[in-house]
Amino acid sequence: AVGEAVPAAQRGSWSSFLKSIASFSGDLSSLTAPPFILSPVSLTEFPAYWCEHPDIFAAIADAPDDESRALAVLKWFICTLKGQYTSRNESMGSEKKPLNPVLGELFYGHWPPPASNPKQGTTTLLVEQVSHHPPITAYVIENKSKGLRLTGHNAQKTSFSAGSIIVKQIGHAVLTVSRPSSSPVQYLLTLPKLRIDGLWYGSPYIELAETSYILGGGFVTAIEYKGKGYFSGKSHTFKATVTPAPGMGGAAKVEHVVEGTWHERSKFVKSSGGSAKAHVLQRANGEELFHDVAADGKLEVTALGGDGTGGMSEFETRKLWAAVAKGIREGDFETASREKSRIENDQRQRRRDEAAAGSTWPLKHFVPEESDPVYERLARLVKLTPPTEDFYVFQENWPAVPVLQQAQN
Ligand code: HCR
């Protein structure tokens, strides 16, 4: 029945929320939702999902050749999807509405290497909310000792269709792999389209749709997503095809095809080419697996305080939202809503003051650019549209966050 999973007292406001999203297109984060669907986590924490398997990320640097590296990048990308798109269902019972970050909100963190493998190196995370209307989050994830850096930004455009919310992800990420004796390799990562189903029952969950790409390093990887009722009839299904980039393959016909579910297991269903596959293969019960989520424990990010004394400054996510998050976690929605209004009113006042002074909020780590030459170059490999996208250029100002600079050394 409608709102089956919704607390009885909130069914009316859930129906109104659904009506408002049905007639709405744009920035969902601005709509007021009933308390049961609120998450205590800000969207600035989401880039951490890219690195909850820091070992699989680090392994990209150890790939011996371009073909192995293309598979290693794909493996890392696939292993992030469960966290990105299903972890709120596991930790909170359904997908939830995250806290909408304020302009200039910051989140810093790191993943130290395990004691058993110090050579894995530390991975650091730096996130800044670079726009509030529309919400845009920019990030840099780096394992300096392995020469790996992921930079990107993320925004969303939402619409409503046949009872589901459709979320087009705007933005892209670039993975740079630096090598000691040759030039760096860059990969462009595009982001899948999401469908939020289960709204009718008040129990939303994500399904991925259409195709996303990993482009660069001499290879093109196309990842096709399907849900229940399509080619396997299973949720969270994907099929990834790795082939040489146009003009790169030479005479050898290299092709790897991986199929499975991104929240459980996937395997090679076709593999021609060199010994690249050996680099990423997991063997279990006589099967040649590409990836088994259950076999790889995730490591959540450790948040770091960036104020220079080990503490968090006013705009760091966990400090800024502490009272709101506590209210949501403890079911004290009155406090949560009061604290949220306090933050939002403060933001409005800041924008008014800036307008009066003819100034704008100075971003701390990023500068917006209208086009990204890396995107333009790599997007041509599959004739992506649009042919260019804007980008947020990281200012290389690690000393501004001593705790991250120390973590990298
Ligand atoms: C769409 C979404 C906000 C954006 C979230 C993104 C796309 C952010 C970037 C991450 O890398 C991946 C990611 C995962 C989330 O699944 C996605 C969120 C899911 C819901 C949320 C909406 C704004 C909230 C809608 C309210 C619903 C639950 C009724």
Amount of helix: 10-25%
Spatial ordering of strands, largest sheet: 6-7-10-11-9-8
Helix and strand sequence: HEHHEEEEEEEEEEEEEEHEEEHHHEHEH
User: How many strand units?
Assistant: 20
**Mean pLDDT rating:** 93
> What ranges have pLDDT less than 50 throughout 5 or more consecutive residues?
none
Question: Sheet with the most strands?
Answer: 6 strands, antiparallel, barrel
Categorize the overall geometry.
Answer: globular
Span of the ends, CA to CA: 56 Å
Secondary structure tally, helices: 9
Ligands, ions, cofactors = 7-hydroxycholesterol
Strand percentage lies at: 25-35%
* Overall radius of gyration: 22 Å
Question: How is this structure best described in words?
Answer:
25% of the residues lie in helices and 32% in strands. It has nine helices and 20 strands. Residues 28-29, 37, 46, 49, 84-85, 95-98, 154, 156, 167, 169, 194, 196, 204, 206 line the site of 7-hydroxycholesterol (HCR).
Write the layout of secondary structure elements.
Elements: H1 11-22, E1 38-42, H2 54-58, H3 66-92, E2 97-99, E3 106-111, E4 123-131, E5 136-143, E6 148-161, E7 164-170, E8 173-177, E9 185-189, E10 193-197, E11 205-216, E12 219-226, E13 237-244, E14 255-261, E15 265-272, H4 276-280, E16 282-284, E17 287-292, E18 302-304, H5 317-320, H6 322-330, H7 333-357, E19 366-369, H8 373-379, E20 391-394, H9 402-408
Parallel strand pairs: 1-2
Antiparallel strand pairs: 3-4, 3-18, 4-5, 5-6, 6-7, 6-8, 7-10, 8-9, 9-11, 10-11, 11-12, 12-13, 13-14, 14-15, 15-17, 16-17, 19-20
The structure holds 7-hydroxycholesterol.
